[in-house]
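call fold target=Large ribosomal subunit protein bL33
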Amino acid sequence: MAQGKFTEKLIKLRCDVCKRQNYYTRKNKKVVERKLEFKKFCASCVKHTKHKEGKK
């Protein structure tokens, strides 16, 4: 079967404080080799916290 033309994979973003998976995003694994890290709003913590790329 032919492979898809997209090299992006769906990843989960996990809160560092409460460890809940709050967000999903795409990452091109050929271009970006490091783990993604964003400062986003966590609804369970009710504040902006650091969200890192989680495991599958």
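return ok
The radius of gyration is 13 Å. The chain has one domain: 8-53.
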